[in-house]
Every structure is written in C-alpha cells, then in structure tokens.
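Bench log, entry 3. Co-assembly request; chain sequences pasted below exactly as received.
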Amino acid sequence: MEHHVSLTTLIKASLAAIVLAAIALVLFILPAEYNIDPTGVGQKLGLTLLAEAAEAAPLAPQPMPDEMTSQQVIEITVPAHKGIEYKLQMNRYDKLTYEWITDGAPLYFDLHGEPEGDTSGYFESYAIATLGAMKGSFTAPFNGSHGWYWNNPGDQPVAIQLIINGRYQIIGLKP
Amino acid sequence: MKLFLRTLLLLSLFTPAGLALAHGDHGTISETWAKQVAAKTVQQMTFKDMGHQAGKLDASWKSVQPSDIKVVTVGKEFYVLHVTNSETKQSLSIKIAFTGQVLEATENTRN
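Structure output for the full assembly:
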C-alpha cells in the first residue's frame, strides 16, 4: 500500500514541529536547565528550582591524591552455611572505598549501615547482591557502624579478601 | 525539497543521540592512581590467582611498600609499572590501562 504525503503537508508538519519544539524550549527546557524563564511558567511549575539547585550545589570534583594512600587488607572466612558481619565505625560524610573478592564461590551480601545509638534494629542497605567480587565506594549517611553481612549457603567455607581505604575505625567481626 | 526535509529529519533524529553518547568514557588515571591500582593488584594476587601470567604470589608480596612501585613506561593508552619484592628481589611488571583496568601482570626474569 503506497501512502503519498504532499509537499505542502510535509512543510506544514515540519513547521508545526519546529513551533512546538520552540514552545517546549521556552516554557520548560530553558527554565529547568538554565534558569531562563521569560514567561514565568517555569517558576510556577517549579522547574527553575532544578536549575537553581544545580547552580547552588555543583558536583565536587573527585580529589585525586598526590600520594598513594594507605590501604588496609583484611582476610576473613565465612564458614559453610553461616553468615558473618564485618563492620567499621564511621562518622557522617566519612568516605570509604572498598574492593573484595572471594577465593571461589559467590556470596550473598548486604552492605549496610546502622545508626549510632539506635536500638530499633533499623539499618540502611547500600547494596545487596550475590557476587564473587565487588568494588565501590560510599559516603556514610550517618554516624554509626557500616559494613558487610556475607552469607555462605554452600557446603565449603569461603575466604574473602577485603581491601579498604578511607576514614574509618575497624570494629571487626560482629557476633 | 522532499529529500531536503528527509535529510533534516534524519539529522534531527541522530545528532542529539550521538552527542548524548559522546561523553560516556572514563578519564585517564594519574600515575599515582596507577600505583594505587598496582598495590591493590599485588595484594589480590597474594590471595588468589587473578588470571594473570604471574599466577598466585606468595605471602612475601604482602609487605610491598609504595616505594617498591615505579612507573617505568607511559604508553599510548597504558602504564607499565614495576613492583619489586624487597624480601626476595623478585619483580613484577603490571600493565594498567588509562581507565584503571589491569591488563597484564607478568613476573620479570632475574638476570
């Protein structure tokens, strides 16, 4: 089935698209991205807040250390059919980079933090998965203990090597 | 005219996508950061065979210090670092891409 569109229709459609794009640019995109709001619609819709927030809190560049920073290497073993928890004491906004690998089998883990002084049992999980290795970083959202729960569902013990770098105090294995 | 409009349409469809994908790359790590990666890699290689030519390293490599790690080559898109085991006098060459990925770790033969 052939479908012919006349040249006039094409031109009209193109012009209509350009007009719509220009309206969207002025009403929504300029206020949200650049805080340019000639019509005032962006402010009424709250779009200018997005641009203001971006201007007020530019992303801090990741500092690259001039010298090698010391890394701590920890080796622990998760017994078969058991779970263990390894924690660090960190203050709010302390940053930690970490990398851990197992000697073989993947383990279920929950990287989480527990607020200092909290007795409700609340904890906040930053990552949950079943992996044989993981690398990452996080900034502590509150004062408290932060670290990993690893669970080994297998029949053999699994060794973990954890390499950490940052601001923390080791609590170690929690019973 | 139709050809012109079709070309315009195609350009409008593909150009923004190309620009959006253009910044998806990592930057280049510094020599200091490459040393940091090498130090971590050596520790991991003492724990298990990470699949590199040098295989699993013995426990003496755990005491490698920052001063034992030197950048010996800066290639087009990689660094080559030498790590010396001050206890055994053995050395490793570790090739690290500018993205931070460890490409090779080979044991240097002693002369």
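Strands of chain A lie at 72-78, 82-90, 95-102, 107-115, 124-131, 133-139, 144-152, 158-166, 169-174. The longest strand of chain A covers residues 82-90.
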